[in-house]
Amino acid sequence: MARWLLLLAVGLCVAAGAHAWATDEMELFDLVEEVNKNFYELLGVPQDAETKEIKKAFRKLSLVTHPDKNDAPDADVQFRQLVGVYEVLSDAKKRERYHEVLEFGLPDWRSAVFYFRRVRKMGLLEMAVILFMILTVGQYAVLWASYAERKYTIEQNLTAKSKKIQKKAKKGGAPEEDVADFGLEKPSVFHLLPFQSVRFVYLVVTGAPQLYRIATELWEERKRRIQEEEELANQESSEEDEPKEKKPRKRKTFQPPEMTFDAEENSVAESVEEVVAEPKVVRPPPIVGGLWTDDDFAELARLTKKFPGGIPNRWERIAESMNRTVPEVTHMAKRVLEDLAK
C-alpha cells in the first residue's frame, strides 16, 4: 500500500509542477525553441525598444515575409513565426517572461515542465508506446519490491521460530525451514505486462470457441426456461377459464354407538313384555345407520318444533315419527346445533 501511495504522490507532484506553468508560457517556450533566435535580432530592434518601434519593424518585415510576396518554400512558417514574435514583444507580460527566458534559459530536464512540453508534442501512438514502457518498468519494480517485502516477512517469522526449529532438528524432529519452502517465486520478465498481454490474447483466441459454446448453451437454456414458464402460465389461465364442475355433496352418516345389555336386563325386559300384553301397531323396524338426506334434516327440524322441550318422551316421539332410533336422532340434533353455533 505504501508503494502505491508513494507513486501517486510522485505523479501528483509532477502534474502539479507541470500545471504550475500557464498555457501562454508553454506557447512561449515552444516559440523560442522553434525560432531558435533572439526575437529582437529577428525584428532588428534593440532589447529596450518601445512598442512603436517593434510595431514598425513588424510591418516592415511582414511585407517581405508574407506568403503572397515571398517565394520561399517555408514562407508560411516564417510569417507565422514573425507574428508569434510580435505578439510576445507587444504584450508587456509576455515580453517580461521572454526576458526571463533570455536570462535563465528554457526549463531543462531537471524540471517537470521539460517533460510535459515533450508530451504535448507527441502523437497518440508515440505516447501510447512510451506509456506502455513506463508501466512495464514500474510493474517490474513493484514486483521486486513486493517480493522483497514478502521475503523479509517470512525471514522475520523464521527468525522468531529458529530456536524451536533447531531444537527439533537436533532431536531428530522436523528439519529447519527455509524461505524456499514457502513457495516464494522470484519476479521474472514473463510476469511483465508485454508477456502477460500476449498470453491474454492467446488465451482469448484459443478459448473463443469454448466461450461461444458456453454462451450458446446458456442462451438456449434461458430460452427453454422462458418457454416452459409461458406454457405453464397458459395452462393455468386455461384451467381458470374452464367452468368448475359441481361436486356431489357428501351425506353425513350416523354410526350409532354399540349398546350392550346384560343377560339379566334382557330376561327382565322379556318378562315385562309377556306380562303387559297390550295391542300395538305393527311398524317397520327403525332404520339404524342410514344416510341422512336434506329431507331427513328438514323433518327433524319440523318435529323439534312440533315437540318442544318439556314434553314427556320428546325424543322417543320424534324418533318414532322418523322411524329411527333415539340415540341416532339425539346425536344428529346435537350435530345440527353445533353447526349452527359455528
What does this structure look like?
This protein is mostly helical. Helices cover about 70% and strands about 0% of the residues. The chain has 14 helices and no strands. It has helices at about 1-20, 25-35, 40-45, 50-65, 75-90, 90-105, 110-120, 125-160, 160-170, 195-240, 265-275, 295-305, 315-320, 325-340. The radius of gyration is 56 Å and the shape is elongated. It starts with a helix and ends with a helix. The model is unreliable at about 1-5, about 15-20, about 260-270 and about 270-280 (pLDDT under 50).
Topology of helices and strands:
Blueprint: H1 2-19, H2 23-35, H3 39-43, H4 51-65, H5 75-90, H6 92-104, H7 112-120, H8 124-160, H9 162-170, H10 193-241, H11 263-275, H12 294-306, H13 314-322, H14 326-341
Helix pairs in contact: 1-7, 2-5, 2-6, 4-5, 5-6, 13-14
Précis, in short:
With 342 residues, this protein is mainly alpha-helical. Helix content is 69%, strand content 0%.
**Given the structure, what is the number of helices?**
14
Shape: elongated
Q: Which class do the helix and strand fractions yield?
A: mainly alpha
Order of helices and strands: HHHHHHHHHHHHHH
**Terminal residue distance:** 75 Å
Residue-averaged pLDDT: 75
- The radius of gyration is 56 Å
Uncertain parts: 1-7, 16-20, 258-269, 271-280
Number of strands: 0
Helix content: 55-70%
Strand percent estimate: under 5%
Largest sheet: none
Main location: membrane
Pfam families: DnaJ, Myb_DNA-binding_2
Protein name: J domain-containing protein
Transmembrane segments: 127-147
